[in-house]
Structures
1.
Amino acid sequence: MILFIFEGKVDKTYFESIKRLFFPEKSGTFVCTYNSNIYSLYTKLQEHDTLHGMLEVNTVSVFKEILLEKGDETLKDIREDEVSEIYLFFDYDFQEKARTLEENNKRLSELLEYFTDETGTGKLYINYPMVESLRYTKQLPDNDYWQYAVTRQKCKEESFKHQVHEFSFYGANLEYIILTIKSADNEAKKQEKTDTAKQNWRYLIVMNVSKSNYICNDKNEIPDEADNQKDIFDNQLSKYVETEDCKVAILNAFPIFLFEYFGKKVIERVNIENSIIE
């Protein structure tokens, strides 16, 4: 069984579409939502003595306890030995005000050093500044995506979700990436919707993986392998966050996860700037 742990319900909605498009024949995936931010998770893990040298603690058991404390029985019947891989998806949320930005960065850095192995403690993926970054795009493919960034001040003044709604070519319509099959759809229509959504996800994979390569290596191009999540974070800090503007490069974790999971074959036959990726 593969366990996916998401920050909130929006993440789960995107994943359900990913699952239908890219994992149609794979069973044994299980999803739970933490329903709080990454910095709250850090505090909870500290309470459970999970960080700082306690690597023998099982992630499934820890999350089961944390969720049960909230009255959430989602993981109640999941055994540790049933889970072979664990993936966690959370937001950077650098506009969060409960602690200083420096303290939050320190916490996130520790978490990225802890959650590095999907077959062990789990692998953590971060959205910058939040999961809605997936929709911060003009009509796909958006060849300017590598340049998009947002300041912390802007995120404090206006919610990033609202900024996305105003900026996106698609507005509030999610059907370009969320596969929605209706009972009235015939087989041809179903296939058309599936092909369109899958192609748009492939564009997003190319755009986000290339951008992560730009963030880490100053090259806006597809790398042979996806950049390490800790490397992305460290370069976000040095090149964007810890600058005078205090901004962050807009980046989404789901496309990067898909590239890491499936490799380059996930973007075969994608036409970007009139060049076919083989």
2.
Amino acid sequence: MKKLLIGSLIISNLFSYTLTDYLFYALKNIKGLPKIGIALSGGGARGIAHIGVLKVLEEEEIPVNFISGTSAGALIGGFYASGFNSKRLLELAKELKWSNIVRPKVSPSNLLNLKYVFSQDVLEDYVREKIGNKKFYELKIPACFVSCDLRTGEKIVFREGDVSIAMRASSAIPGIFEPVYYKHRILVDGGVVDKVPVDVLIEMGAEFIIASNVGKEVYSEEFGNLIDILSQIINIQANEISSIMLRKADVVIEPDTSGIKFYELNKWEMAVEKGIVETRRKMKEIKEKLILKMIER
């Protein structure tokens, strides 16, 4: 190890690499990286920032061995686990419109008995169109997605079965999107019980966990519509719960998405850039902690 340190100092002076960079890549080649898991939080349109996070990890040659996700994180995570790299995810973000994934259910006849504003059945069709009828065992990266049973309040973790159903169930925000009726359960957005699913990555075997938490304490001061109000309520509750989960992660990346509302898909470029900026800012910490993990092995 002493020779490695001396060599790293010499080489880092000759090239543009920092000492951290050189040690990271040297140890990576010698010892191999620990199994890395990434937890992707919910956050509506803010979740597009996860693409920026994944893009930087790819550029820095930091592989993702396990993925967990809630709501928007389940959608991004599902596509990524299916084999979509960050470049393909960017293409999806560019084309994505609400009309691709939801359809309105409000009409004068059902207004008094209204249980939700939008149906998400088209989301399931959209996902199947992009990734096919994939089952969890067919994913290129092992993944799991979190939902909540509206009847019991239980956290439901999808690890098997139909991936598209799991992605839809994880993102069915109560009052906004139609619940998913699946195996005698009524399933809604996983952010109700676990906005940043870190613990499931530990169960899957991850040795190093990165949490991408978008919309940290993004509280609105103006409420222009029902969606603003409902998303605010869930955000308040979710941030209380997620603070506990985030302590279990090795590194927490929290892009500043305060300028993006839950439904502003048109701000996808801003969201991606926020993810890129914050992940690059955190890269030294990620590499240093991975170095320590590799030395301990």
3.
Amino acid sequence: MNIPFLSFQGMHPGIKAEMMQAFSEFYDGNWFVLGERVKKFEKEYAAYNKVEHCVGLSNGLDALHIALRTLGIQQGDEVIIPSNTYIATALAISYVGATPVFVEPDLQTYNIDPAKIETAITAKTKAIMPVHLYGQACDMQSIMNVAAKHNLFVIEDNAQAHGATSQGKLTGAWGHMNGTSFYPGKNLGALGDAGAVTTNDAVLAKKAYTLRNYGSERKYYNEVIGYNMRLDECQAGLLSVKLKYLDQWTAQRKQIAAWYDEMLKGTGDIILPAIHQEATHVYHLYVIRTKHRDELQNHLAAVGIGTLIHYPVPPHLQQAYAHLGFKKGQFPLAEEIAATCLSIPLWPGMTQSQTAQVVENIAGFYKK
């Protein structure tokens, strides 16, 4: 048996001719940086995400970095983020000299708990950065209410949730500026690194356009100290092709998740994903939890089923953030999730039979 954790076979072969055509047009066009393909994709993705502006960038981390810089977040400031997130969320804050402030998640949805945000706000707090973890939308209205009350910016980390909604509104459309990733394994993935920021504010969008390109609006004239963080023209062309299929692939992800929900119900001590009543989930990852996580992962690996752990070490316990002085036990919910979570295979094209084989082998582990 070989069921990989991630496979592109349900996506890429069927669109190969379109992708090759897009590459051929890029190659023959002899314009390789910030051309018409980037502009086209920015317009298309903004329309998809129902926002006014999309600024194409080099990757998701750079998108969060540019969003923070655009909003003027700087040294001495604090930004609130969930205690259970990928390290990139915290790194972007460190890049601008600010300090990440961790808030525990809701143990059901794994997203930041809005009820706990206010206690973390200080005079130094400038922004809240919710993460739509694993593909489920955060409770954005509650977060926006807290932000408005305290005059804070909101920057959504939308790297895992293209197409998800909170209270009927798309993720990446709530915040003042929002960062997303098009890393190959994401629901909308390039064939290399790529990312973007989204916003409804024309002034912020213009500033982000300038920052991504050496701080320059006009070639060789630099208004501010900027970066080289541009979306690649080739990747933009390929993303335009894949964007047309995103909803179709998302529907497949939801179907596979539904199969898992039904077949895994009542299996051992497994905790299945829970969906907030006003949120939708696009299943970038299907994450189960069990106290026997490591043994289950080893069992599945032995029979050829791939899994991953998202994520084994919370940011506050990473060596990179040892200088913040956090100790084990300070964020127990994040640590509990890190010790018990396991992401099992889910990708467009995965069949019901393959899903059943994964479930059968999980059940077999518990029968032992």
4.
Amino acid sequence: MRAAAPVQKDGPRVNEDIRVREVQLIDHEGTNRGVTPTQDAITLAREAGLDLVEISPNTSPPICKILDYGKFKYQAQKKAAEARKKQKTVEVKEIKLRPGIDKHDYQVKMRSMRRFFEEGDKVKVTLRFRGREMAHQELGYKLLQRVREDMANLAKVEAEPMSEGRQIVMILAPR
């Protein structure tokens, strides 16, 4: 029977979890103490009433810092939340057209496309054919070419128009 594998916790190793002989130590004031035996570093941290936290584990020897681990974790959490708040997810909006679209309907679709590009979203233009319209696919490609030209200053073509059964699809991304 084998012993159970140690439970991996997320985040940096702290105090007794640091299992190397010596570490590069930075004390609580930010001064570099040089290479120090791990037990001495833990003792110094305890005397300061703080924790020994492994900051850079992939170096040789690992870099450890004496600091308040609870505060360190809280700061990291706040930083991650701030990064998530500033992040903008790019959505793909869909505009559906037909080959025989009227002038005004076309303008309405272009207005909403413009709004999507200003919000930073991508637009998937789907041109659907019904019945005998399939015989005149060149009209569909002309319409998509017109969309491309009308949106040239706002968007670039990410996926060229391609036929998928009874529809032609083109994807535009904001510039």
